[in-house]
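User: Design a sequence. Structure:
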């Protein structure tokens, strides 16, 4: 026996839940199918357990996509203020941490509970631990064969996310389904991910694991000023996660280790004020001590400041402001926050997320080739694209 719905949504993450709520509120009969044992697992683990659910400063420029214009329409129609209004209606306490990043005061569980309450109020049916065995189209709709039975609907929304964190239910299912229906899938790779070092680059830094400082990371014309953390495998921290989305193996990646002001001016000032102090001790006062000492051991000489000629100070300043970080790779999908690439936006409507190839088929959230920066931008894309599809179905 086949059960009929107006909409079937595959994937109970941020995008799928928002789409279900929006379509359900419009009176559509919605079935949401999730293969994991509960919905919203990534929401639960996000933002260190407090869910950075949006960012007040969202602009299309915060997203990577082969078509940077694609995200504009959905983002313009569902804004951070719309999601915040829902959070407030549910009495969830929240705060701005920094740079427009909005977090729950208490727990990301509250966001999942809120979305589930909204689904219940909109009569959305949710099936968890439900494995899909086959998806077929025909007769003006879709038939989904699952371990729990066969379901049919005129509209099918693919909200199955990307490949990041397979242990949380991530799968390539959405990409396979896209290909099954003739869609192109742009190459995928891990984004917002720590970088690894190897060989001498690793040996030089590995015992500095735990050292943290503010840097400016630069690659392929993008710059992020944020924290860097040396790990036992390489480098992490927001400055690295952000730039990792713009980095491909072999690309030139530079770090400005002294992003607060003019390094040369600081060195000249120190030379005038502390002519007898050794460079390593001067640097240890402006950088984490262990890093400053290692820097001098490997890349710079250390002698009393008064012995440096000005052109030498210029070279040192340039090295500190333009340090080439030779990464060997990324930590991959195991720890990546997002997946870059995905379903090609050329074949989707930017206002409804509907396929231009197959009527009634929609793709939303991370499975689409739209990836945000770190800081609540990815959830905002999930809410906005879910809302766009839910409003159109
Ligand atoms: P999402 O991955 O959330 O959901 C997809 C769902 O589909 C999953 O529940 C999955 O189990 C299900 N699924 C997959 N295959 C299926 C199948 N075959 N059948 C049925 N169901 C299937 N972003 C942000 O803005 N702020 C933050 O604080 C964080 N923090 C963060 C921390 C960590 C550790 C990670 C890994 C990621 C983040 N992110 C984030 C990114 C954010 O979590 C991500 O961009 C969104 O969850 C994407 O939402 P989707 O609904 O598209 O996919």
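Assistant: Done.
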């Amino acid at each position: 026996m086949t059960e009929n719905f107006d909409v079937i949504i595959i994937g109970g993450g941020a995008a799928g839940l928002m789409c279900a709520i929006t379509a359900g509120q419009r009176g559509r009969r919605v079935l949401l199918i999730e293969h994991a044992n509960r919905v919203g697992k990534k929401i639960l683990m996000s933002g260190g357990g407090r869910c950075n659910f949006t960012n007040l400063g969202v602009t299309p420029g915060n997203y990577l996509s082969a078509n940077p214009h694609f995200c504009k329409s959905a983002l313009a129609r569902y804004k951070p203020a719309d999601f915040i209004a829902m959070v407030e209606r549910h009495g969830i306490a929240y705060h701005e941490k920094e740079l427009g990043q909005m977090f729950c005061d208490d727990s990301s569980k509250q966001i999942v509970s809120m979305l589930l309450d909204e689904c219940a109020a909109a009569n959305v049916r949710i099936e968890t631990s439900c494995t899909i065995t086959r998806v077929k189209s025909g007769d003006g709709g879709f038939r989904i064969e699952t371990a729990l039975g066969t379901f049919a609907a005129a509209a099918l929304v693919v909200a199955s996310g990307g490949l990041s964190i397979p242990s949380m239910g991530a799968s390539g299912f959405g990409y396979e389904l896209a290909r099954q229906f003739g869609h192109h899938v742009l190459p995928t790779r891990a984004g917002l991910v720590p970088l690894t070092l190897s060989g001498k680059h690793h040996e030089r830094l590995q015992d500095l694991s735990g050292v943290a400082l503010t840097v400016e990371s630069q690659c392929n014309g993008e710059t992020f000023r944020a924290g860097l953390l040396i790990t036992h495998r390489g480098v992490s921290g927001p400055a690295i996660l952000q730039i990792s989305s713009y980095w491909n193996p072999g690309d030139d990646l530079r770090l400005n280790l002294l992003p607060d002001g003019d390094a040369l001016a600081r060195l000249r000032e120190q030379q005038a004020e502390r002519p007898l102090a050794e460079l390593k001790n001067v640097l240890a006062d402006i950088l984490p001590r262990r890093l400053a000492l290692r820097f001098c051991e490997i890349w710079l000489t250390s002698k009393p400041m008064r012995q440096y000629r000005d052109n030498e100070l210029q070279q040192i300043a340039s090295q500190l402001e333009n340090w080439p970080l030779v990464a060997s790779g990324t930590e991959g999908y195991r720890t990546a926050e997002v997946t870059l690439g995905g379903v090609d936006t050329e074949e989707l409507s930017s206002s409804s997320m509907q396929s231009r190839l197959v009527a009634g088929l929609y793709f939303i959230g991370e499975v689409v080739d739209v990836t945000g920066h770190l800081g609540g931008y990815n959830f905002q894309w999930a809410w906005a694209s879910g809302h766009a599809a839910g409003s159109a179905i």
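The first strand starts at residue 2 and ends at 10. Residues 377-392 form the longest helix (16 residues).
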